[in-house]
Amino acid sequence: GKGWMLIGATDGERANIMTASWGGFGYVWNKPVAMCFIRPERYTCPLAEAGERLSISFLDEGYREALIFCGRHSGREGDKFAGAGLHCVWREGTPYPAEAGSVLLCRKLYAGDLLREGFSDAALLEAHYGEGNLHRLFLCEIEEVLVRCISAERSS
């Protein structure tokens, strides 16, 4: 909904981040998982397909403009990390923004396209996919969670 995240992906040569708000967490196949949705025409989608891992990063409200930038610009146009004023860091070959408050480092388990015939609610399908253009679902095992620790100064 209103809380946004950045999905980070690489094909081994190019790295990209994109803003997303659709996703979720759960437990599937006896594993903690995160799921995210990427439209196949987005620059990030072939990177996510080519790589073994994804990052899902959450930034605090002070980075709203960076999130907006990453949602409005394509990685085809240039380095979105730099354009958004973010710094790309890597862990286990997976890119994510250094500024993130928390990061899920995930290993892909499943990727598949949403199908028109799979929708039970025709109004939902029409509202979100009237012209086609259905998302691809990525279901990923959460392998590691990084959380930024902020230390507070104590006054005497």
Characterize the structure shown.
With 156 residues, this protein is an alpha+beta fold. Helix content is 18%, strand content 41%. The protein has four helices and nine strands. The strands form two sheets. Strands 2-1-5-8-9-4-3 form a seven-stranded antiparallel sheet. A two-stranded antiparallel ribbon has the order 6-7. Strand 1 (5-10) and strand 2 form a beta hairpin.
Mean pLDDT: 92
Number of helices: 4
Radius of gyration: 16 Å
Percentage of residues in helical conformation: 10-25%
Q: Could you name the ranges where pLDDT drops below 50 across 5 or more consecutive residues?
A: none
Q: What is the overall silhouette?
A: globular
Class by helix and strand content?
alpha+beta
Beta-strand share of residues:
35-45%
**CA(first)-CA(last) distance:** 42 Å
What order do the strands of the largest sheet run in, or round the barrel if closed? 2-1-5-8-9-4-3
Counted beta strands: 9
For the report, how would you describe the main beta sheet?
7 strands, antiparallel
Order of helices and strands: EEEEHEHHEEEHE
Quick summary of this structure?
The chain has 4 helices and 9 strands, in the order ββββαβααβββαβ. With 156 residues, the protein is of the alpha+beta class.
Topology overview:
Blueprint: E1 5-10, E2 15-20, E3 23-28, E4 31-38, H1 44-50, E5 53-58, H2 64-72, H3 80-83, E6 88-91, E7 94-97, E8 102-113, H4 122-129, E9 136-147
Antiparallel strand pairs: 1-2, 1-5, 3-4, 4-9, 5-8, 6-7, 8-9
